[in-house]
Amino acid sequence: MKMAGSLAVVNIGQLVTLAGPGRARAGKELSELSLVENAALLVEDGRFAAAGAYEELRSRIPAGTTIIDAEGSCVTPGFVDAHTHLVFAGNRAAEFEQRITGATYQEIAAGGGGILRVLAQLNAEGPARIVSTLLAAHALPPEFASRRQEYVHWIEEELIPEVCAAKLATGCDVFCDDHAFTVDEARSVLTAARRHGLRLRVHAEQFRPGTGAALAAELAAATADHLEAATSETLELLRRAAVQPVLLPGSVFALGRKQYPQARKMIELGLGIVLATDFNPGSSPVASMPFILSLACVQMCLTPAEALTAATQNAACCLGLGDRAGSLEAGKDADFLIHEFGDYRELAYFIAAPFRPRVFVAGKEVMA
Question: Residue 86: inside a domain, yes or no?
């Protein structure tokens, strides 16, 4: 009898399961991909039922199951991009009209609309899962140019409660740097966010040391993102506080800068590093995760295995999704990629090459 939603992927030349601890990996664990040759995947109702050698799983494939032939290709977990600024296309003509007719910035934001509601709509429509983070403290709006404290107070007392009540975000981030928000302002916003149960993140030390990474450690934030200028002493603070560094080499590349994060030092210290695109229209118009893996290997001396782990399992963990995504294990959501090649190392090796995998989300093919 055919099981509802059952799927089997067979003839997999190389299966990268990343099976193992359901937490962020550090040190030598970053290279432990749990590879299986001549493998198969079994999916039931959008979740993995099994992953392993075909000879061991063939008897478990129910009659009538949909069969996909991977043709000897490599199969990996789906990428988890843990730091993007996804919504920026289109316009805000409606808000423009509201301003003309007298609405204030606070009234417009509190009334809904904008990036967080767009993300909620996209998440509902699928197929990709979107984890939204409130980043109101990214840049000071022109309306508040001379009223910084008023803006920070509004975020704390009005916006955060509104966002939480509407369930528009699960985390809160602050851009803490010379041209953004100060350490004290960031501490104030993040403390308010923590009171409302949001996961804490900090854009930190992108351009200068001493601008937020120590605060991330102090508050035991989930992540500290960027860290190009972070010192060894600060990295040790992050390790002690179990803060995951989210490294964004795409923005370093796109800005023409030379200072990449100290990824090897972080690995030596035992930090659970993450790789992400920082996809945005200004500093990182880089949407390709394979290109990020290439940059991580060439510019930060990661191995292809370390880079892949940082962009899948570790990335899922920093978002609180370590039990649902990031590896090919029974019970997890069936998000995976069937590649055009047979060796996972080719992801980083072919720099900026066209990348056309077959993409599956929750067991359904969404792009071929």
Answer: no
